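Backbones bend. We report:
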Amino acid sequence: MGTGYNRNDSSNNIADGNVINASDLDGEFDAIVNAFKTDGHSHDGTSAEGAAIVKVGPAQQLEISATALSPATTNTLDLGGSDKQFKDLYLDGTANLDNISADAANVIGAVTMGSTLSVVGAASVGGSLGVSGNASVDGSLSIGGTFNFATANVTGSLGISDSVSVGTTLSVISNTSVGGTFTVTGNASGAGTLDVKGAASVGGATTITGAISGASTFAVKGNSSVGGTLKVTGNQENSGTLEAIGNTSVGGTLTVTNTIIAKDEIGAVGNASVGGTLTVTNDYVGLDRFDNVGAASVGGSFVLTGDIDVAGGISGTGTLDIRQNASVGGTLTVTNNQANAGTLSVIGAASVGGTLGITGNASITGTLAITDEFTFATANSTGNLGILKNASVGGTFHIQGNTSAQGTLNVKGAVSVASTLGVEGDITNGAGNLTINPATQIVEVKGDGSSVDGQIQLNCRDNSHGQKVMAQPHSEGVTNEMLLPKGANSTLVSEAGTATITNKTYLDVDGNLRAVPKSRNLATQLGTAAGTDTGNFIMLTGTASSTQTLVLTKDVFSAGDIFTVLNTNYGGKTAAAVTTFSAAQLNTCFVAGAETSTALVTLAYNGVASVLFIDSSACVITGNVS
C-alpha cells in the first residue's frame, strides 16, 4: 500500500480569515508529493487511500466492478486497435464472443460464440467450440471437444476429437478429422481427407478432394464427390450421386438414391442399393444383395456374395461373379467371365467376353453372346445365343433365336431351338443318347449352297477315320427315300467294294434275276424279235408240222442285250416242224464257235438258244443251233 495523503496543516492555518504563511502551503504540497511517489496509493476507500475508482475514460465509458470490466454502453468500446494492439490475452474461463478475427487462436477450454468466428491463422480449442453464426479459419482448426456452428470455412485442416454439428455449410480446404459424430445440415466440402470415427450425416452435397473414412454410418442427402478413397465401416447412404476417384469400401449397407461413379474399386459388406447408374472403373466386391434401378458398369471384377437386381443394364470389363440370383432389366455385357451361383434373368441382351457359369437357371429375352464357355442348369432365351467355346446345360435348353457354339454343347435335358443351331465343336449328352425330336420328324443337313452337298460322317471309336453318308449332287435332281435293311443285323452293300452276298433275291425291271421271265408265246409261222424280249425268253409253239421263223432286225437291240428262245412241243408240235432264226437283215450273225456269218440258223426240236447282240446289227447265237 502507498503512503497515502494526510493533511499537513494540523493547526488549520489555511482557513478563511487567517494569515497563511508560505510554510503552510509548502507543507501541504510536500504531503501531496509524498502521496503520489512510485509506490502510489490504493484507492481502497479508506481516509488515507481515497475512494475506489469504478469509472475510467474521458467520458467514463469504461466501468470497473468487483467482478467485471465492462463498457458503459454495449458495443461502443474496443480493446486495443489496429495500430495499437495488446500482446497476449489470457482467459481461464469461457470466451463468449459475437465475432472473432484472429491471426491464430489457441484455446485450452471451451469456446462459445453468439455470432461469427473469423481466424486468419490457425485455431486450436482444447474444449468445445460453439458458434451461433459463421466460422472462417484461414489456417488449421483443432478442437478437443465438440464443434457446433452455422457455417464453417477452414482453409487448413480441421481436427475434432468429439462430435461436429454444422447448421448449414462446412467447407474445409485441407484434411478433416472427427472423433465422434459428424452432422452437417447443409453442404460439406473439403480439399483434403475426411475421417469420421462416428456416424456422419450431411443434409446437402458432399465434395471431398481427398479420401473419406468413417467408423460408422455415412449419410448424405445430396450428391457426394470424393477425390480419393471412400471407406465407411458402417452404412453409407446417399440421396444424390456418389462419385469417388479412389477405392470405395462400405462395411455395412450402401444406399445411393441416384448414381454411383467410382474411378477405382467398390467394396460393400452389406446390401447395396443404387437408384441411378453404377459406374465403377475397377473392381466391385459385395458380400450381400445389390439393387440398382439404373444401369451398372464395372471396369474390373464384379463379385457379389448375395443377390443382384438391376433394372437397367450391366456392363463390365472384368469378371462378374454373383453367388446368388441375378436379375438384369436391360443389357448384360461382361468383357471377361460371368459366374452365377443362382438364377440369371436378363430382360434384354446378354454378352459375356469370357466364361458364363450359372448354377441355377438362365432366362434371357434378348440375344446371348459368349466368347468362352457356357455352363448353367436351365436356359431360356428369346433371342440368339452365340458361344465361342464349350456350353454345358444341366437341364432344359430353350432358344427362340439362333444358337452358335464354337466348342462342345453338352445338354443334360431337352434342347429346343426355334431357328438355327450352329455348333463348331461337339454336342454331347452326358446322361444318355442325344435325341432329336423335330415336329416333322426330319433331321435335315444342308449343303453349302454352291459346291458341297449335305452329308453325315460316322467316325470309328478312335475318331481317327470316318465314313460319310452323302446326298446325290444337285445336278442329279434326286428327291427320294431310302429304307434301311430290315431283319437281322447286316451291312450295306457297296457298288465299288468287294463283298459276298448271301440269301438275297436279285431283281431287275423284269423281276428276279435267278428266274428268267417269259416275255411271250409265239404260235405263228413268222415272228419278229422285239426290244421287250431283252432279258426274257420267247416260247415258240405251233402245230404238229408247221414251220416257224423268228426274224432278227437291225437297230432294235444294243450291245449287251440278250434274250432266250425255247422251241418246245407245247401245243402238239413235232420234230418234223422246222424252226429257224432269220438274220438276213443284220450285218453279221454267228453261231457260237463258227468262223463265218450265216443268215439262217436252225433251232433244234426242244432246243434252247440265246441271242447276244454285239451291237445294233450283229449278234452271236449259242445253244442247240446249227
